[in-house]
Specification:
The chain is mainly alpha-helical. Helices cover about 70% and strands about 5% of the residues. It has 2 domains: about 80 residues, Winged helix-like DNA-binding domain superfamily/Winged helix DNA-binding domain (Arc Repressor Mutant, subunit A, Orthogonal Bundle); about 80 residues. The protein has a 3-stranded antiparallel beta sheet.
């Protein structure tokens, strides 16, 4: 991956900013961004440090965090003495599945809040009730969403890859 390209560097920074909005450290987001666009689909610790112009310590902390979060995996390659990091297969499907767990947890917190407000006027509970209704709706739709994604994933990927190949051919 040639990070002399300003657009690639900006993509990595935008990825880091986005991941930071989800509570990740900025450097972990940069690692995710780099791993999303590298070819082959893995980078060594040293390559990440060099390409992201970061210390080996910050790369180590970030890759360890991402491995604990089950987003990145460390792999060994034949003939190589060093380890490489890559995004886990099915990362985005798993990310969706974890979102459901988060919504269930949100619902539990809301229910605790409503219990604490028992006997209080409905005006005090309104925001919690709205959050409960949203989470109920999302959880009602969630199984169908995951099922539709599983059924259409390959088709959607193929369509997008074909479209991008056609666009690339037209630019030549």
């Amino acid at each position: 991956m040639n990070l002399d390209n300003e657009r690639l560097r900006q993509f990595i920074e935008n990825s880091a900013d986005l991941m930071e909005e989800h509570g990740f450290p900025h450097m972990a987001g940069r690692v995710i961004g780099a791993l999303m666009i590298c070819t082959p689909p893995h980078l060594s610790h040293e390559e990440l440090a060099e390409q992201l112009q970061a210390s080996k310590g910050s790369i180590s902390m970030s890759t360890q965090l991402l491995m604990r979060m089950n987003m990145v995996e460390r792999v060994s390659l034949p003939g190589e003495r060093r380890h490489f990091y890559r995004l886990r297969e099915n990362l985005w499907k798993d990310f969706l599945s974890k979102a459901a767990s988060h919504i269930i947890r949100e619902r539990e917190v809301v229910m605790d809040g409503l219990a604490a407000l028992e006997g209080e006027p409905v005006e005090m509970k309104r925001r919690l009730i709205e959050m409960l209704v949203v989470s109920d709706f999302v959880m009602e739709e969630w199984p169908g969403l995951l099922s539709r994604w599983g059924a259409r994933r390959d088709e959607l990927l193929k369509e997008r890859l074909t479209e991008m190949a056609q666009d690339a051919g037209e630019r030549k």
